[in-house]
Write a structure and sequence with these properties.
The strands form five sheets. Strands 8, 9, 12, 15, 16 and 17 form a six-stranded antiparallel beta sheet that branches. Strands 1-2-3-7-6 form a five-stranded antiparallel beta sheet. Strands 4-5 form a two-stranded antiparallel sheet. By secondary structure, it is α+β, with helices and mostly antiparallel strands. It has seven helices and 17 strands. It folds into two domains: about 100 residues, Phosphorylase Kinase, domain 1 (2-Layer Sandwich), CATH 3.30.200; about 130 residues, D-amino Acid Aminotransferase, Chain A, domain 1. About 30% of the residues lie in helices and about 25% in strands. The protein binds adenosine-5'-triphosphate and magnesium ion (MG). The site of adenosine-5'-triphosphate (ATP) has 16 residues, from strand 2, strand 7 and strand 15.
């Protein structure tokens, strides 16, 4: 098994996100999911074997299933038009060749449950991103219906929630309305599908971009990195929920003396193995297939 924490393609400059390595091919991008894992906003020094392949292939599964206009050209490395010297075995299974779009600079967040910054705001003001909600909801409660709560990437790198009217100022009314409608619809379909397979998708983030005059779904969709996945059989409102994929990592980190303000410690092997199994399980549940 090959564990990849960083990829290098000779001659191609790379931009590294927390988890993905991105290569610019002009009118196309190569999005490579590595096995890096982040927690508490830090990239951990220990990769999780197979995580990158799971993420890329869950996203590919949804892109295919949803039938929404999207950026994918292929996830088959043998069909990618790449420089000869590229080591395809390094990229296999973890790479998406996609159309480069002009990104709409708004994160299209949909929330079906009350968690994270949504729960924090609700406790202060009874609203989430300014949207009033019924009184008396508990932490992790399912919302009466999913809500659209856009955000922008602030200069700090953290997301900042914005009102729908602010999104209208940024993207224009018709685009904002279209993206809200499409985001809610994709979330509804994806969450319903995942729930039948034992996973609650509590909330998620979509990105869209222009390809010519068409607004397409880009980035990754409905993965454990872009969404909160909760195990449905352990769901219990009134408390925070265990994360389907990262719980072992978070629990272990919280049990150490790490202060969350300095580089995190390496993960012990049993935490790595249990976490790897959760990613594989997420893949199997959602796609109905074993990762090969
Ligand atoms: N088809 C596309 N066309 C243009 N840009 C895209 C496309 N798909 C994804 N992107 C962009 O590629 C980048 C992917 O970066 P990635 O998510 O790995 O890291 P990041 O967003 O910089 O940081 P983080 O790791 O915190 O998410 C994002 O900026 C996303 O908007
Ligand atoms: Mg990102």
């Amino acid at each position: 098994m090959r564990v990849i924490s960083e990829t290098v393609i000779p001659g191609l400059p790379v931009r590294r996100g927390k988890v993905r390595d991105i290569y610019d091919l002009g009118d196309k991008l190569l999005l490579v999911s590595t096995d890096r894992i982040s927690a508490f906003d830090w990239v951990l020094p220990t990769p999780i074997p197979d995580k990158g392949r799971v993420l890329t292939q869950i996203a590919a599964f949804w892109f295919d299933l949803l039938g929404e206009p999207n950026h994918v050209i292929t996830t088959d490395v043998n069909q990618m038009d790449l420089p000869d010297e590229v080591d395809r075995s390094l990229l296999a299974g973890r790479t998406t060749l996609c159309r480069k779009a002009q990104v709409v600079p708004v994160e299209c967040v949909v929330r079906g449950y009350l968690a994270g910054s949504g729960w924090a705001e609700y406790q202060r003001s009874g609203t989430v991103c300014g949207i009033p909600l019924p009184a008396g909801l508990q932490e992790s409660a399912q919302l009466p219906e999913p809500i659209f709560t856009p955000a922008t990437k602030a200069a700090t790198g953290h997301d900042e929630n914005i009102s729908f009217e602010r999104m209208v100022e940024i993207a224009g009314r018709s685009v904002a309305e279209e993206l809200r409608r499409r985001s809610l619809e994709i979330f509804r379909r994806g969450a319903e599908y995942a729930l039948q397979r034992g996973i609650i998708i509590a909330d998620t983030k979509f990105e869209f971009g222009w390809a010519g005059d068409e607004l397409i779904l880009i980035d990754e969709v409905l993965t454990p990195d872009s969404s909160r996945f909760w195990p449905a059989d352990q769901y219990q409102p009134g408390r925070s929920q265990p994360s389907f994929d990262k719980q072992y990592v978070r629990d272990w980190l919280s049990s150490t003396s790490w202060d969350k303000n300095s580089p995190p410690p390496p993960l012990p092997d049993d935490v790595v193995q249990k976490t790897r199994e959760k990613y594989l399980e997420a893949y199997q549940r959602i796609t109905g297939r074993q990762l090969t």
